[in-house]
Amino acid sequence: MKRFFGKMRYKYRLIVMNESTYEERFAMRLSRLNVFTVISLSILSMIVLAFILIAYTPLREYIPGYGNVEERQMLFELSLKTDSLEKELQAREIYFNAFYSMLLNLDSAMLLDNYSAYSNSGDNPEFNTENKQASFLLPPLKGKIVNKFDASKEHYGIDISGEKDSFIHSVADGIVVFSDWTLDGGKTIVIQHSSNIISVYKHNSVLIKQEGESVSAGEPVAVIGNTGEETNGPHLHFELWIDQVAVNPANHLSLE
User: Fold this and answer.
1) In a domain, 56, yes or no
2) Domain boundary at 62, 81, 99, which?
3) HSE of 81 in the Cβ direction (CA atoms, 13 Å)?
4) Residue 170 per-residue DSSP state
5) Are residues 150 and 232 in the same domain?
6) What DSSP line would sit under 22-64, residue for residue?
7) Shared domain check, 136 and 46
8) Mean pLDDT, 10 residues at a time, the chain of 256 residues
9) Among 252, 253, 237, 21, CA closest to 125
10) Is 71 helix (H, G, I), strand (E, B) or coil?
11) Residues 126 and 234 in one domain
């Protein structure tokens, strides 16, 4: 060990000479210990300087994974809010999907059972004056009924003929709860009205109103068409529902 430290203290002479004249320009006495000490201090100084730059200057913001404490807290809170909103949107999506399925793809047997039970309950499903009025309804389209309402044949609405490119109108004030394509009804729009009344308009060529929009009675919501599987010509298939039960719209509309 003493021999090692002894070698570390051996003196050496560092000389800088002119290559042409061999004139001595600079000379320095060094030892291995001096060189080791200078290099160690230089490395330590660089480490300390880098730490100061990272800890106390804005340069730290550019280092991946190293951010401001307040910003990290803000990102964490935003992450929690985003997660909550995502869960709420998922819940709403499940609810609306179930609602649309109920409107557009109800089991036929259940519909018939509901209709029979409602019809035999003593309350007229045609919104009599003692129940719910439908006298405010405007015709969705001026035309003739070419296919009547028949719950026994699972035809829960009426088919109304009309001229090409005719506008389909909302029968009352309400909010659009569905406006999209369905397999059997093609371009379909569903409007929720007051008193738990729902109107359905199928086989349209163009949907003017979108989900969430408010509509007024008589306002155009679509254009007559021939879309969907269950159609054989341009017409409007119109349905009227109350408390999830289909009723005959012809009893409440003046189409002639």
Assistant:
1) yes
2) 62
3) 6
4) -
5) yes
6) --EEEEEEEEHHHHHHHHHHHHHHHHHHHHHHHHHSGGGGGST
7) no
8) 68 81 80 83 91 73 62 79 79 64 49 45 39 66 91 91 93 92 90 89 95 92 91 90 88 73
9) 252
10) helix
11) yes
Q: Say if 186 falls within a structural domain.
A: yes
Using CA atoms, how far apart are residues 108 and 112, in angstroms rounded to an integer?
6
Asked if residue 120 and residue 244 are part of one domain, the reply reads yes
The overall longest dimension of the chain from CA atoms, in Å, is 127
204 three-class SS: strand
Q: Which amino acid is at 164?
A: K
> Is the residue at 216 inside a domain?
yes
What domain count does the chain have?
2
User: What whole-number distance in Å separates Cα of residue 204 and Cα of residue 14?
Assistant: 96
* pLDDT at res. 55: 72
Q: What is the DSSP letter of 153?
A: G
**Domain boundaries, position 57:** 2-62
Helices (H), the chain: 2-8, 32-56, 69-104, 108-119
